[in-house]
Amino acid sequence: MRIKGLKTLSLLCVMTSATSVMADAGKLLATAGLSQIEGSGGGGLVPWATLAGYDTRDETSASVFMTNVDVTDYRLSSIGIASSFYDRVELSYAQQTFHLPVSLNKALGVGEIKQNILGAKVRLFGDLVYSDYPQVSIGLQHKSLDQNTVASYLGAKKDSGTDLYLAATKVHLGLVAGYDLIWNLTACATKANEMGLLGFGGDGNNHYQMVMEGSVGLLLSPKWVVGMEYRQKPNNLSRVEEDDWKDVFVSYNPNKNFNLTAAYVDLGTVATQKDQTGLYLSMTGYLW
Amino acid sequence: MVSFIKASVLIFCLFLVACANQNKAPESLYDDVGGQPVMIKITDNFIQEISFNRTIYQYFAKTNIDRFREKFIEYLCVSTGGPCQYTGDTMLKVHQGQKITEADFNTTVDLLVAAMKDAGLTYPQQNRVLEVLAKTRREMLYQ
Ligand code: HEM
Question: Which residue of B has its CA nearest to A54?
């Protein structure tokens, strides 16, 4: 599934872009944003209104990313690909692998959970840097788990689901003592427990819920961005508590082909394990 | 979790205070970057950058560079709050008919940033200049 999904998506990208102009000079450095943990263009934990890549309205772009989150009791790795078309539409695919600690592994008989995420995003209006108002996009992430043992054991109702979000992002040139400020605000309708890794809906609540997600960042130089993020989470499972997520990040963009981001993340309680903090590392390569 | 929020809020406040103090200087951006000699330096560097960029140079192939130099210096001066008169045409009028694409606009901004950097502007100064010049972007693109 994983290889097949990746192949289909990359083939799709290659086909649609073969005849069109490709982005290299495109947008300003660092304005492509990062690869979000679920594959969309964004910050690290929060999807933004930015599209993944440096394409302008005459160009396409594609990128691949790899992210690792290593917290107290869990590890999550995520790999994926995103393509963006004419600064208008973004398509993405990501596969997450959630590694459980040995103690849970023994109790549940499951060592890891995989989740596939297909994403689509459309920029409705605005230009991140140049319009007076923010860039606003609408997007969805369709998620499905490869097995529902853990999810149903914890009381989740489904092993697949779709998140819908509306995001607004803006760069203010030179706003803070001459440094560019970037902010993002996202409203997301979701049923996902821990991003979907613990299933969708639950015995506590089985309806879509609106959660808010936000980020602020400062461009310290054309290459370095620092910032923080906050992601509100629903609480659908009566037996396992779920906390909001937050992080502080540093992002390095040496050129328009590469991005490296490190963050300290605080995920709170995840699947009964308290105080899940640790390191987030992400790399994005822009193919064109 | 509470300590994390507290720490973040504290850092953010410190930051705002630091910035508020810096913003107090009443000096214009023009004076801050170094006045007329720097306007001239930026413009000359910019022309140099354009002459080495195949894509952007094409737009200027038939341009009277002496006129462009004079008007661009004036434009930079006025935009940054300097004591000058702009005697050139409006941004809409000069860039009309050129069909400037978004990608080429962004490339030109990269060239201008390089020109400012070579003229000794700090990164915050470059951002401030860009902020005032970018306001007319809509009048330049795809016209
Ligand atoms: C921040 C962006 C820009 C600013 C502030 C700016 C400013 C100016 C100014 C002040 C002039 C002289 C006006 C006059 O002669 O009356 C000018 C002319 C010109 N600009 Fe721009 N410009 C910008 C972006 C661009 C871009 C992106 C292109 C093309 C890629 C471009 C191409 C030209 C050309 C070809 C001329 C000369 C037109 C002629 O021959 O009469 N400019 N610009």
Answer: B103
Q: What is the pLDDT of residues A250-283, one digit of tens each?
A: 999 988 889 999 999 999 999 888 999 999 999 9
Spatial separation of the C-alpha atoms in residues B22 and B19, rounded to whole Å:
5
User: What's the whole-model pTM score?
Assistant: 0.83
Q: With beta carbons less than 8 A apart as the criterion, state whether A259 and A26 touch.
A: no
Query: A85 pLDDT exceeds 90?
Result: yes
Ligand 1 near B100 CB (within 6 A): yes
3-state secondary structure chain B: CHHHHHHHHHHHHHHHHHHHHHHCCCCCHHHHHCCHHHHHHHHHHHHHHHHCCHHHHHHHCCCCHHHHHHHHHHHHHHHCCCCCCCCCCCHHHHHCCCCECHHHHHHHHHHHHHHHHHCCCCHHHHHHHHHHHHHHHHHHECC
Contacts of A59 in chain B (CB under 8 A): 103
Whether A272 and A240 have beta carbons less than 8 Å apart is answered as: yes
Suggest the residue from B4, B14, B125 to mutate for an interface test with chain A (most A CBs closer than 10 A): B4
Which residue is closest to A277 within chain B, CA to CA?
B1
pLDDT at A134: 95
Instruction: Convert the pLDDT of each residue in A34-74 to its tens digit.
Output: 899 999 999 899 999 999 888 888 889 999 999 999 999 99
Atom of ligand 1 nearest to the CA of B104: 30
Q: Is A194 helix (H, G, I), strand (E, B) or coil?
A: helix
Name the strand (E) or helix (H) holding A15: helix A2-17
What is the predicted ipTM?
Answer: 0.74
pLDDT at B2 over 90: no
Token digits of residue A57:
């309205």
Cβ–Cβ < 8 Å for B56, B111? yes
CA of A125 to the centre of ligand 1 (A): 26
For the structural domain made of B27-139, what CATH number should be given? 1.10.490.10
Task: Name the residue ranges covered by the structural domains of chain B.
Answer: 27-139
- Give the contacts of B118 (CB within 8 A, at least 6 positions apart): B41, B45
For chain A, list the domains and their CATH numbers: 2-286 (2.40.160.40)
Task: Output phi, psi for A250, to 5 deg.
Answer: -130, 130
Whether A80 shows a pLDDT value over 70: the answer reads yes
